[in-house]
Amino acid sequence: MKTKVLFFIFSILAFFETNAQCAMCRAVLENEEGQGVAKGINDGIIYLMSIPYILVFIVGFAIYWKYFRKKKNKT
Fold it and tell me: CA 32 to CA 44: how far, in whole Å?
């Protein structure tokens, strides 16, 4: 259980540093000086990508919690 928690935390921290641009967006934004817009686009893509994962985690946790409480009350 401890390794699963550590793996989960490491996964969350690792994806904050990823570049999420597609090839076409990268080609257009690399031509710009300063790269400020490119970093903003990356942050927006990562934000939009993380919402479904967070929702799936919440639903999975709710199902697990409901099942765990049922089992605990039976014993």
Answer: 18
CA distances from 34 to 4, 27, 53, 66 (A): 40, 14, 31, 50
Three-state secondary structure call for residue 1: coil
Predicted confidence at residue 21, as pLDDT, reads 59
Largest CA distance in the chain: 65
Angle at which helices 23-30 and 36-74 cross, to 10°:
140
Residue 6 has pLDDT above 60, yes or no: yes
In terms of Cβ atoms closer than 10 Å to its own Cβ (0-12, 13-18, 19+), residue 14 is exposed
pTM of the predicted protein model: 0.48
Task: Please enumerate, as own/partner, the contacts of 6-13 that have beta carbons within 8 Å and a separation of 24 or more.
Answer: none
